[in-house]
């Protein structure tokens, strides 16, 4: 890394300083980017609000801590190569700082982020190109292209006016020599070097074509534009003048260009990669793009032997294709700790990253050995073109065969202003008959309101060929559409608001089914005895018979020995809106476990004599407003498989009690009121709804996600064997003055059923919630006159609860931590009988 011949040869210290700064840049960027993503994930997992200033603050810290030493090596050393290194890294740092600011945009608005990334990267490429040219001339006029002793020499040692040797120039249409990709009138055929860069970029893209899946059409187009802009930015930073600093001397030294120039280019690409993508989707590029620096160096070394400088085109193509994979093939919201451990998207992103890194390293070695030599032939344009076409065909076959072809973008959840008027619903006779009459009247009013108020909107969506699904439990429609459709819908007078209904992208292979590793219980589980449910069976002779419990979750293993006998059966007791399965099944295990705690036999369930119906609202343990509504709507009026909820619903078959061990946070598309009309309708129909408080404790005010925040839902926290409220159990209070949680139940170390006939011990308010639903089933089984009397049932549950032990942080009072206390099944059933 020495300048060319001169009166005095600089010592090694500038090179050592540059190496140390490079190591500092790599270490800081890798650690800070990973830490920033981890902070985002911890905030998400704990239910705390996302810190919008996290990434802008990190941008400022990066510029201060990395920019200062980089500026010094850009100005002080006498070595032109070291100064060029510093200036290139400094430009990369400034670009990174600007790109990090874009992460203040919420991840749910991915199209907006991609559009901002494309525009910002393109603008940075334009500005950086001008500033770098001026900096090279203004800071050191002797380093202006082609003016000083350090000007790049070609094979003949003679430099052209732009720093590229005369032997390495080609003639453009105007007869003036120029490197490929630097401008000129008309389109010129790509050189062999550029075609080899395209082939390398396609190989980097291949792992993402295999494991990833595209989003919507607009999202995919914007990802392509963003990748192209990032490639253009890298092309400006690693232009002909940059590479020229590492090829000085006569004859040039390609080995130094590949090794030293490749290292410097790799650090530059690390900076570009760190700013490419939302939080999470930039991490794969941090590993796969830096080795590309050696590939680019080898390509430029080969260009020296062809008499045609590579210019910026190889950099644009190779970096652009390398960035396209993670930008287009993954949803950053799915690169989350919430899906870690289930061989879901984070696992496959890691697989693609490892494969991409291996490809990049192999390309660096292969191109470095094959092209980065002083002598030897360079593949002709025809050979390089055939190579690129073969690789393109192979990547296309991977995508069509092993990949997930098609578009898999998010949908829109449109909430209408008018919601059904459910006031004045007749209470009817006490017991099941009166409850059934209320369900029928609520269903009739909901359907009538939706049919009337949605008619115009449905007609317009059909005319625009936008696939849509109407709902009545909440007067809403889920539809295809991007930001443009969302803006059009938001302006319609009948629309209250438009939410993004998240949809998980498909995987190359389904996650493995979760099986339990525990033996079946030999008697009532400890949690069953703690709340006195076993005494209800043995002393009062009540097991829940005559009551149906509905579960909305990840599914149910209907063949499990503890659950098979309780399935109500018939064509309207199971609904899977995700895959349209006809028989109960569960890959996750969450739904099987929770239902087992409610109605499972063999000592795991509170009400083993009750029947159950099920619905799948979680796909790989995540949902969206529409799928949550699908299941709640099915519970109000079940319908046969393939039936129309509006016309084929059977209110008389509605279960009496619903257990819901889920919540709908903003990352899934819900706002605080998204499902409020649904729970209000279920309340009016006399259906008892139990919901989990969440696992975002011990923070106060951590019960935040619907439906746990609603006043007509009984919200359940968790305690351990010692009646101590668990640290993870979410706390109140809740906005709008609603006191939550209502009760607590055992939720730590709960043994219950798992798919395949197994058992497992799990923790969470998800485990506590079905036990309270089981207690309600026991109460209504013991006294059918209570069926549909929600107020009296809640009052009994609260009045008979026993004290729990809140944590030291009471969040303003014990009630905000443990509600009325620990549910007592025996006392509640005795009170119901009395």
TrEMBL record:
Region described as Disordered: spans on this chain: 142-185
Family matches, as PROSITE patterns: SUBTILASE, SUBTILASE_SER
Bilayer-spanning residue ranges: 12-34, 54-76, 88-106, 112-132, 192-210, 222-243, 255-273, 285-304, 313-329, 349-371, 383-403
Record's keyword terms, sorted: Hydrolase, Membrane, Protease, Serine protease, Transmembrane, Transmembrane helix
Signal peptide: none
Pfam families: Peptidase_S8
Protein name as catalogued: Peptidase S8
Organism: Micromonospora rosaria
